[in-house]
Amino acid sequence: MAITLPGDNDFESVPSLKNKALRINLNRNIYGTFAEIGAGQETVRHFFRAGGASGTIAKAMSAYDKDFSDAVYGVQNDGRYVTEARLRRMLKYETDLIEERISREKHPEKLFFTYANTVATIDFAKKYKGHGWVGIKFQAAPGEEYSQIVLHVRFKETDARLQQITLGTLGTNLIYGAFYKHDQPKKLLKYLYDHIDTDTIEMDMINFEGPRFKDVDNRLMSLQLLRNDMTEAVMFGPDGNNILSARILYKKNVLALRGSFRPVTKVNMDMYETAKKMFIKSGKVQEDRLETIFEITLSNLKAQGEIDEEDFLHRAELLCSLGQTVMISNFKEYYRLVEYFNNYTKERIGLVMGVNNLVDVFDTKYYTHLSGGILEAFGKLFFKDLRVYLYPMKNKETGELTTSENLKVHPRMKELYKFFKYNGRVIDIENYNPEIGHIFSREVLRMIAAGEEGWREMLPDGIAELIDDQNLFGCNTSEEAEVEEIG
What domains are there in the chain, each with its CATH number? Predict the structure, then answer.
């Protein structure tokens, strides 16, 4: 049952923060707790100031002291406070408390909610700008199971007070969106930035859960974050839920494979598996501290024009079925991808590439936007402990095999290439399968669309069955060239 309120049309199309808070306050059924830790009670302040808050606010909680916070919400195993686990514990605890203390028999029409955040704003030395977890657990109809929205933000402003103001605005938008826009999750996501400039805060993870969002695919919500310029990269796990990059990359070795994966082929998996073995044997890499990433760039998704969400989900579905962690980014150049990883780890990083990708890395035309040109890009790419694992390519006509030894780059880049090659930064993949070098995603896609035989044998175990069962890529009827991403 959707919530209605007399006079809905009286509110402007983009309501002010006061109007958003007032609309919540004037709904006599919405009732809940505000629990805000780390940046002041910035969200609840909007509801107090709007008027009529006595029927909305059950409690405003701010357990700043760590000992007191532990006494209320329990001790986290990792001893950290600005975490997703802490936020979820806060949401559960406060919601359970409302259910325990407020009689459903006396208030059968009440819509309970808990809004919570746990945040660290910019430090005194201004070295770390701060980040936080924000969430709401709510009912959109009396007595229904709770739905939940959990998100992570990174502050870009360099003043703690400005960060607090931005957080209060975001929290008000979230509560308003949960109650009045839950049936339009894509719009809800966009409306979270009402009265907020995108250059003041980054939203790099969000998950929608519960009955009101049973039809929401959180991978599509990740894609929306990128499309709306709310972040530069998002990640989701094999279960399809979005995950925070910092959480899984922190102090880890990272091995990344970029591709279109349209669909994922035996060659993709051979590249990944052979490079992974070599990466682990290279030294400084512990298998239990290794995170492997299958990355797709936003420009790749736009290769055929506007992003086709169904096509995106087809690719994601196949990679997730193989147990892979998927990353979607707007990093067209490899050096930007490496910079991103270096934000979270100082450990060795590996990139798996095909021959064409590495040739493009050494093409100067892709770096004209940098004042230092290709040298600046390479300084960022190879500045830390990076290894490039090169998968060989066989020429169909001549049968010649291209490896790092005979790879041809522009004559002006020849010495630069030699420098990185002979300093052990570019490594040929060994023990690859020479029988599958003829497989290309674009050819598989063409064969699927044309109804030809033979494509199933080109895919990893179980992938062809998924494509058949779910009719994946069934609408692709034109022969399209697979886009190669540049350095």
Answer: 8-216 (3.90.950.20), 247-470 (3.40.50.620)
